Amino acid sequence: MNPTTTKKIDWNAIAKELKGIEIITDRLQVAKLSLDYYHFSPILQAQLKDKRGDLVVRPQNETEVIAVARTCVKHKVPLTVRGAGTGNYGQCIPLNGGIILDTTRMNQIRWIKPGLARVESGVKMAAFDKKAKEIGWELRMVPSTYRTATIGGFIGGGSGGIGSINYGQLRDRGNVQALRIVTVEDEPRILELRGDEVQKVNHAWGTNGIITELEIALAPTYPWTEIIVIFDDFISAARFGQALSDSDGLIKKLVSIHAAPIPSYFTALSTYIPEGKHCALVMLAEFCLEPFQDLVREYGGQITYQKTTEEGSKGTSIAEFTWNHTTLHARSVDSSLTYLQTFFFTLERVEQLYRHFGDEVMMHLEFLRVAGKAIPAGLQLVRYTTEERLNEIIRYHEEQGASIANPHTYILEEGGRKTIETEQLQFKEMVDPYGLMNPGKMRAWLERRGSL
Amino acid sequence: MNPTTTKKIDWNAIAKELKGIEIITDRLQVAKLSLDYYHFSPILQAQLKDKRGDLVVRPQNETEVIAVARTCVKHKVPLTVRGAGTGNYGQCIPLNGGIILDTTRMNQIRWIKPGLARVESGVKMAAFDKKAKEIGWELRMVPSTYRTATIGGFIGGGSGGIGSINYGQLRDRGNVQALRIVTVEDEPRILELRGDEVQKVNHAWGTNGIITELEIALAPTYPWTEIIVIFDDFISAARFGQALSDSDGLIKKLVSIHAAPIPSYFTALSTYIPEGKHCALVMLAEFCLEPFQDLVREYGGQITYQKTTEEGSKGTSIAEFTWNHTTLHARSVDSSLTYLQTFFFTLERVEQLYRHFGDEVMMHLEFLRVAGKAIPAGLQLVRYTTEERLNEIIRYHEEQGASIANPHTYILEEGGRKTIETEQLQFKEMVDPYGLMNPGKMRAWLERRGSL
To answer: What is the pTM of this model?
Structure first.
């Protein structure tokens, strides 16, 4: 499938060349650092489970990154960049072996000022937020894996998350303000992309440049309180989610809606969500609690849990039951479950699909802003039977006007974006002329090379 | 029109009863404190220019307010509450004389905490913001008259303003969290309205209770920068306004769009807006400037002015050329001008009406959030000829599907709301059983009394 193979590589020579940089060759360790959470998909599981890198490097700084890039080019070795490996589509799984560049030692925060920060790509999100909160700011959006995930990994492989109800997605203008990358050329260069230019590399899965630093916009931090609201019927819960998202006077960071029986997979929350109930998991600014209660009343909900700001990071965080942590918890109870990623655009479509599939596709909604409007996105849980049936379910969604960002493919363009991003391809031609970076993931490159 | 008249009132006896409370009886002073900016409307000007109160009281605290209320009831004297008198519809102009209660001496800030504050109703908005900014917060929305306007006056007679692009309008759940009022009964009572209950009194023009304290939600304060962008054509400017409003990653507080020749009335800004150009006046978080420039480029605009955060309150603030200050500046050049208040809902309708009326109705848009969506609202300048023609213009807008909040009436229900607010009427029946408060303004009350 890919012209680059690792057959004639002299790994000892390479290790020698990289002397001074931390290298991992231990088989088990390398295996662990070759994978991500691809196993949420039974399709990807079969395709990717045996993929391994040959060695892992853990550079501490850009100089070491440049050395790694130079070596990869010299030996024409595949190079796959990873953060904490919390992705779900095999974004950082090496299809053709080679070097895995683990960024987690590049964890310096360059500066944090009101509204903006500059960090190395391996900085962990939770660690960053702890620091930023000291001056009243925090990351605008984080995945449910924020405790371990890196900022660079999120920009490389993610798209949005907790906070997207306010700030939209990473690709929205203003959220990522600059990216500094190292190219994978004979003589690697450092490039700084600013403004709209960042889209060349944003969400390109590390196929076109090694991100070493980022400038990201911040959000003011609020005294967040975590709330569980239960509902007798799912549609009321969904409408409540839309109404809360559209309530301009209520400050929130998370509006996550779960149809029964999904909450039954949330073992740690079982006290608060009786069997058969549907629920909303909400992060709300604490000073909005009183008017929020009026909204809950209007939609027939009942607040069963509230964790105050002071209790903060202690104990369970409901954020870790939302976005793809929902899938994680459900799969820890029933590993036959998988999921979809869906843009419904309207609540009417949510309702129609909810009724159509019944228990086979359990409705999980995350509200987020797209071009200024709050819309429900689905991370529905699917009772998996066969690949054929899964594709049938996807097809039916699309026939009904929903859009599926297929999480059962490791091809960049077959997931969320659907179309080839010409500017990402052109940028790859410039910064990765030998096609060494994360080979096999960018369809446009493979087609150009006639290898797909 | 109203049963209450002031014919047989013994003003000396009243003054005696109110001893200890500041009273103003000087004719010129009383005349000044009887009026507001009603003269923006030639219709209201004719109707209201001779209306005067009989005396003005300036209570310092709630105890004094209660004494005033008791006296009004005892003598069956009309009572009209005013803040700084910066309204535009004669909201606080006494139609039948009586006592004017000026709240501006009740200017204590009870407390400010993150996200929420409690103030007396006479606190001035600019003074409050100065204080709140010390701990990183500010008012969520302010009128263009924020330098002098009071918080109580804004809630009593206003609806939204600078900041509404983020937080919607005052009536949106969460923005006003509590109101404390004194009733105008034989034995005045103090009532605290919380949550949705505040709607009973919000924007009721002081017809149903004297607001003495308020709890208002705050916004985090950003390092705001003021920017002027010019455009060759109006439609590009309008589309830029919508795009900026919908850009979830760009933090703004003001998106104000002006078709030529409106900017020609902004004498102080003439250096930055060449003749014939259309402009956007923007307040933007300073750290968003770089991605903002990309947006400006996309819409063919040109930045001609930027005032940094450090320059702050020094010199001209572009905010004071927006909302109804636009009308103020235009009228200071040409006093025959008046204005409209319009919800267009879509940009297509803006464009159609812009082309239809040409120079007779000059397009001025303010973007604000309504139920989660940013929409363009109009404060168009109208070249006034006759009342008949003005009504024709209004009718045409409505035939085209726009909604006009008529600023040429002093009847509460004929302005923005259109419908009778049953809960405000019922509340008035309870707290103002003699109909003394701001008589002649609430149509529902007049109809109930058979006096209209």
So the answer is: 0.96
